[in-house]
Amino acid sequence: MTDASLAGTPEPRATSSILTVDDRTRKRNAAEARFRAYGIAAIAVGLVFLVVLVSSILFKGAGAFQQSFITLNVDLQEAKLDKSGTRDIEAIKKVTTFGYNPLIDDALARAIADAGAENPFTKGKDLRKMISSGAAADIRDHVIAHPEQIGETVAFKLLASSRVDGYLKGRVTRDSLARDKNLTPAHLDLVDALQTAGLVTKSFNLDFITGADASESRPEQAGIGVSMLGSFYMMLVVLACALPIGVAASIYLEEFAPQNRFTDLIEVNIANLAAVPSIVFGILGLAVFIQFAHLPQSAPLVGGLVLTLMTLPTIIISTRASLKSVPPSIREAALGIGASNMQMVFHHVLPLAMPGILTGTIIGLAQALGETAPLLLIGMVGYIASNYPDGLIEGFMAPNSAMPAQIYEWAKRADPAYYERAWGGIIILLLFLMSMNIIAIILRRRFERRW
Amino acid sequence: MQDIKITAKNVQVHYGDTHAIKDVSVDIQDNTVTAFIGPSGCGKSTFLRCLNRMNDTIDICRVDGDIRLDGEDIYDKRVDPVQLRAKVGMVFQKPNPFPKSIYDNIAYGPRIHGLARNKADLDEIVEKSLRRGAIWDEVKDRLHAPGTGLSGGQQQRLCIARAIATEPEVLLMDEPCSALDPIATAQVEELIDELRQNFSVVIVTHSMQQAARVSQKTAFFHLGNLVEYGETDRIFTNPTDPRTESYITGRIG
């Protein structure tokens, strides 16, 4: 009993109409409206950044998927390519790419003359700057594959040099060539003439997606295919190591381990490991896998192991979270009819936790796929793999790069043509990450409780 | 006089520093429904969970005293709780069917305990259990439909059928009707009465009417103590302890 109630009847409540909004309500509504506005503003800013990011990536990277070619009728002179005339393949192979250069020079000079333009260059070497320096090797490969065509005139679609390609894409102008030793404005006049004659064309560049990286002077030949394969092998290693170890560790910690100081310590450490900068894992991998265990440098196997270390905490944390989210009633039900702990976990808890585990794993994999820093330290950056690895073992053991490392490498190079390729590589990397996320979503839907 | 199925002597349960069960001794008879009643937090569920060692799953829980099933100490070091729980089945407060088909829900227990030699055997066990669970007629045409798609009352009867599929000797029920409506409750109560033929049933309930309806013996718990234990009729008509009287007349609890 309080004094107030003893004092008699309480004061009557001030009557008010619900049709008029009182001050307190107005304030509350205003606060809510402000909060909504903040939210909308935040989302709008986020969307603007996203649009800017995506459009600039697409705008800058799209060029990498198109490449300029110059079509030339190359006269495969027998006198130059097969002096003996016996079509002996060993003799043909002895002719180096230098031996093919004069053929290109001739073909180019003829094409220019046919197009009705004046050739201001006296030296074939200068004229040939329009064509990729890799073109001779392409012709040589073709001749070795088809020695019977020696003596004939064959039409080749040769890669234009990166400056010509840049001119056709608008990156290179006559002004910008003023201080460029690689090409002169006179070349561009010839390109214009050849283009009018229909010999210079732009077409889809499959080699960018499937090809290997090229040297610094031949950006027009560089492709991301081999490093894509390097990434693929690394992901195989990560999947094979991180998934079983991570899931087993989390099941043990979550379902079987006793709760004591030691397991608490492990838990704290796992949470902290997830926040450790990836470069730390890189230097750990360098010390342990390469310097101590003497695994080969720059190998996808080592890269995969390092990324496994990095991915494990992510997988363990998400797996434990999804194990925790399985309702206790299911555990009790299983134990109540006499299932053992292990039967409870593997028959009932794990299937229900599966979507969460798979999502966590794929997100961990996607994180690993985009990781560059640890690869710096184990030598997967800057290595130029010029060929596809030969078979499975070499795929894991032979030096290779990875997609993000390849992109970093290209972005680092001086030639602006590589800049374009770096953006193109980012488009491919993003496509991979997007498809992995879509797979994660599909798997989650697929394995979600179907009732 | 019927056989004694479970004997508990001087049972003490501690959750960390909390003394949840204080020196409880009780004899549970075979082929009898024994009801545990008492206000919330009095320890009746805790005591029930001691009887099939479900408290083992709680790290901070400590059980002392002597509980014997057919004269064998269930807390003996040699006892595997998994084997014990196959003999002492349990039905929980909330219906908790596995997110599997009705058939698999029932078949799971027999499968892990190796009770069926072949598919036909298993089919028979499933049918028998569902019939004893008084749910066969409702689900016989959709045995492969998910168990979670049934109504609450059906789910609970499915859980009871699941518990008896492993042929337990004792069935522990922790407030099996608290999530059910009166009609479903009546069905489950009828079922409990039938189960008495084959099992010793121990039921925890908040409803005194339910205890009066289904049980032959009643134990009244209060603040961790077993206050009174005896024939249900006598407890409800002529309680000896004033606390029991207060509770059943609605003055405490």
Give a written overview of the molecule:
The complex is a heterodimer of chains A (451) and B (253). Chain A has helices spanning 3-6, 23-61, 78-81, 89-94, 97-114, 124-127, 135-145, 162-168, 185-196, 206-210, 225-256, 261-273, 278-292, 300-324, 328-336, 341-369, 373-377, 391-397, 403-412, 416-447; strands spanning 66-75, 153-159, 200-204. With 451 residues, chain A is mainly alpha-helical. In chain A, helix 2 packs across helix 20 (416-447), helix 5 packs across helix 7 (135-145) and helix 15 (328-336) runs antiparallel to helix 16 (341-369). Chain B has helices at residues 44-50, 81-87, 102-113, 119-132, 136-139, 152-165, 182-195, 208-214, 232-237, 242-248; strands spanning 4-15, 18-29, 33-37, 61-69, 72-73, 88-91, 170-174, 200-204, 217-222, 225-231. In chain B, the strands form 2 sheets. A 6-stranded mixed sheet of chain B has the order 6-7-8-3-9-10, with helices on both faces. A 4-stranded antiparallel sheet of chain B has the order 2-1-4-5, covered by helices on one side. The interface between A and B is medium-sized, with 22 and 30 residues. Chain B: Residues 6-248 form the ABC transporter domain. Chain B: One of its GO terms (molecular function) is ATP binding. Chain B: Keywords: ATP-binding, Nucleotide-binding, Phosphate transport, Transport.
